[in-house]
Structure formats: C-alpha cells, structure tokens
Amino acid sequence: MASLLTENLIEKQEKIISQERGKEEITEISLDRDKIKSIIDKYNGEKRWLISILLDIQAEYNYLPRDPLIMVANELGILLIDVYSVATFYNVFSLKPRGKHIINLCLGTACHVRGGARIADKIKTRLNIEVDETTKDKMFTLETVRCLGCCALGPVVVVDGEYHGQMNAKKVDALLQKYTAPEENA
Ligand code: FES
Q1: Are 106 and 179 within one domain?
Q2: Residue ending a domain, choose from 55, 71, 96
Q3: Ligand 1: which atom is nearest the Cα of residue 153?
Q4: What is the mean pLDDT of the chain?
Q5: Which helix (H) or strand (E) holds 104?
C-alpha cells in the first residue's frame, strides 16, 4: 500500500515536472554512473548533503537530468520524490536542459528603469528565444532575476557567473559574441 502511494506520488511529481518542461524537446543524457558515484562519495553518501550533491550534478550537466536523480535517491536511500522536492523547491536548480552559457538578466526595479526591458528585447531577438528558453544550438539559456544586489551597476547582466554592469541594448551583440567565440576573445 505504502509503495503504491509512493509510486503515485512520484508519478504525480513527474507529471508536474513534465508540464514545467512544456513542449520543449528533451534529449536525455546518457548516465555516467562513475561520475555520479564519485560526486555522491565526495559527500560520504550522506543524505544531509543532498543539496550539495545536486549542485555538483547540475554543475556537471547544467541541469538536473532524471537518471542521475534516480541514482542519487537509490544511493542515499531516500525516495525519488524527496530528491525532486528539493530540486523543485530551490530556484537555483533546473530540471530542464539548459544551454552552455546561462544568461541572467536583472529586471529588478533599478535595472528596469535604466533600460533592462530593452536589453531583454534585444537578447530575445538576437537569440530568437523567450525568457526561460534555450537556443536550438544549446549555446544560450536566458533567465531573469529580480535583483542581484548590485543595483549601482545596473542594468546588470550575468553570464556564467560573470557580471556585466552598465549594460545597454547596444552592448548586447558584443556580449553574446564574447561567449559565442571565446577563443577569439581570449
Ligand atoms: S535591480 Fe538589478 S541589481 Fe538590483
């Protein structure tokens, strides 16, 4: 009875996740068991380190693929739904495949009044995607945040953790170029 309940919960959770993913085509990764095992072993296989384990897995794949989550649940001896609960609770985690480069555009008040929306429009046009989408070539994912805590630098765009302050729409092409052809800008 309990396991039936658990299966139903997992099924329900996966339904929600699949709805979140929308119509986006998902290409599941092949599971690198050794890699996932070494991440789990780094934390002695202790469930109290679940968030750190998920962060490391996401650093590896840029999102949290399903198969590694199943392996984490098995190795830590916890329910898959508990892993999904953590993965869906924190904004830092993504269950959708993301691009090689993650663009975080600040649309907080200070950045917005200084032209954040124009920057957003330019990035969306150039990449042909909307917010929370990934380009077809899997190079960029565009996400937005409500304040990065450095309003004086606004408008701010963060790419792969690198802050770009005092941005404007005219600088967008150069910014994208920097990440499209990094070897040419090294
Ligand atoms: S509003 Fe953009 S950094 Fe604060």
Answers
A1: yes
A2: 96
A3: 3
A4: 86
A5: strand 101-106
Global pTM reads 0.70
Last residue of a domain, one of 96, 119, 137: 96
Residues in contact with ligand 1 (CB, 6 Å cut-off) = 106, 108-111, 147-148, 150-151, 154, 156
79-104: pLDDT as tens digits: 999 999 999 999 889 998 899 999 99
Whether 133 shows a pLDDT value over 90: the answer reads yes
Is residue 1's pLDDT more than 70? no
> What is the maximum span of the chain, computed from C-alpha positions, in angstroms?
61
Q: Residue 175 belongs to what H/E stretch?
A: helix 172-180
Find the CATH number of the domain harbouring 55.
Answer: 1.10.10.1590
Ligand 1 atom with minimal separation from the 150 CA:
3
Element (H, E) at 159: strand 157-159
pLDDT at 121: 97
